[in-house]
Amino acid sequence: MTTETPVPAARRVPTERVHHGDTVVDEYAWLATKDDPETIKYLNAENAWTEARTAHLSGLRTELFEEIRRRTQETDLSVPTRKGQHWYYTRTVQGQQYGVHCRRAVHPDETTPPISTDGAPLDGEQVLLDGNQLAEGRDFFSLGAFDVSPDGRYLAYSTDFSGDERFTLRVKDLSTGELLPDEIPGTFYGTAWSADASVLFYVTVDEAWRPNRVWRHVIGTAAADDVVVHAEDDERFWVGVELTRSERFVLIDIASKLTSEVRVIPAGNPTGEPAVIAPRRQGVEYSVEHHGHRFLILHNDDAEDFALAYTSADAPGDWVPLIEHSPGTRLESVDAFADHLVVSVRSNGLTGLRVLPVGGGDAHDIEFPEPLHTVGLDANPEYRTGRLRLRYTSLVTPDSVYDYDLVTREMTLLRQRPVLPGPDGQVYRSEDYEQQRDWALADDGTKVPISLVYRRGTPRDGSAPCVIYGYGSYEASMDPWFSVGRLSLLDRGVIFAVAHIRGGGEMGRRWYDHGKMLAKKNTFTDFVACARHLAKAGWTAPDRLVARGGSAGGLLMGAVANLAPDAFAGIVAQVPFVDALNTILDPSLPLTVTEWEEWGNPLADPEVYAYMKSYTPYENVAPLDYPAILAMTSLNDTRVLYHEPAKWIARLRAVAPQGDYLLKTEMEAGHGGPSGRYDAWREEAFINAWTLDRLGRA
User: Fold this and answer.
1) How far apart are CA 34 and CA 40, in angstroms?
2) 624-657 pLDDT tens trace
3) Which of 10, 16, 556, 663 is the most buried (most CB within 10 A)?
4) How many other CB atoms are found less than 10 A from the CB of residue 224?
5) Which of these, 128, 129, 159, lies nearest to 142 by C-alpha position?
6) How far apart are CA 52 and CA 129, in angstroms?
7) Who contacts 556 (Cβ-Cβ below 8 Å, separation ≥6)?
8) Strand, coil or helix: what is 531?
9) What is the DSSP secondary-structure string of 272-310?
10) Residues with a known catalytic role
11) Whole-prediction pTM value?
12) Strands of 275-276's sheet in order across
């Protein structure tokens, strides 16, 4: 094992690009050549260096892994969901990495789901797919599609064994257990069945990994005979396909970051020509849900936080208002059932569910007890139902599954994820922990919410260590969530904080708009303001604060390292988008063109170019006193390519050599990291051990 820092190897001729009169020099561009043996040698050397530098934490890593494992009910069974005459569920088995997907016939007069508290198989179960068997002999395994046909006969499923998110699609006959000869390589997420299960629709990507085509496959025929139903030529847009809950229509969803269009095909006529619900108009986003004689349309046409309307299902045309726009209440989605509509809403930084009875009755919001929580619909495949399946959690409440009676409004807890005693026998009690909301003041006077959780009795005198997590892009909201792995931090006196910064969607569409394009720096300054506030308010101190984020949140980590290196004792950047300018300047790279409406187009607009260059982490590495940095990446990641953090760490070492920088690359994984649950726990234990070491709690 190496005991020397890997040489960044700027020995090769750097690349130069000239844009808008400015020259971009990239000394480490050679690291982007994935099939170069020197690249792999360098990444392996970095892994060896990281292992050597963290060898003293091996015992703690084992301890933290065991804490996660012991607190998790390894043999477990999800709450079954009814579809037709079957209950569908997933089992996990102690010692096995992946889930086992099953179903069991509904017994006569059985109205509530059968629940196995010990995770044992249900009597009479049928195993549909065993992920452990599929993954045997593989270093990585991911399931893309898992789609049972409306008649329950076929299962369409797809597999990825490298992490590059290109899947091979197959069809299994559930009545015989046999695989059909149908096999389609190179597919993406998303499938939809025709009403009679004779046709399967699926999606493929172009050379830039943009999902751009929807195909029609006739069961029992060769993939070479498949027909393109829709090909999207505008490189800003991507496509998806789905079957409505009513099973009446196949929807082709076409969307860019700002604009959308939906086309429909009757599920009973799968060879029909797709009909456009409403032609795309720049800046207008809408989604469609089928409900009886109408299509429900959730849209932002003159409605910043979205409104709900409907149009005729027989002849789509004018939109008739159903729920008017209400500034500050973001309508996020609508789900249609025969006798009720359910709208997922967001207000004051919290999620909620609004029920609208069809044909009379008052609309009402479902009430929840905790001031900080996250609620959303779980699987609800049945169109005609009197019950709503929902999932609820908070920073102190484990994931909980409820059935909500749409008539009586009674909510029944079906199951809460068990948290078993830790290695020391300590039993988890939510009352031993506290959660609360605090507010930081941004540079421009905006109040930024922070969610905090900590063990009761944790001091508020600045002495407590703290981890602050952030994301802040794509209108994605970091809503409160429960984590078994996090308990290992809380029980060691660490406070966990989530900064709900602009660029996310926590406070509505405007919150997102004020953290993108030429307002992107608000995301970074908001996060720094939250870090400063935690120290000023006595929650922690800068030398006791570690920041963490991933993907676009990894860009955030790199940006705040340059902006305020003194505010943090350490930074964890997972699959970080730290070379944003070079990536967005190259339209041949995966997803670049589709990202222009999120970040701006620096190729065409010199103002965007100058703005991005002023904040992107790789471009702005300087001879600063950086905190310790741990960067995590995956060789087969197609969303944030591995070379971005590799180049970033190399430049940090060259420009600010006094710093402590580590790079850990998963050589057989994708954007989500290791695929097996035990491997994922080991990665979390690795990060938490490093974090505790930086916080002086190792």
Assistant:
1) 7
2) 999 999 999 999 988 899 999 999 999 999 999 9
3) 556
4) 6
5) 159
6) 40
7) 470, 471, 472, 473, 501, 523, 524, 527, 549
8) helix
9) SPPEESS---TT--EEEEEETTEEEEEE-TT-TT-EEEE
10) 551, 637, 671
11) 0.95
12) 238-243, 249-255, 260-266, 275-276
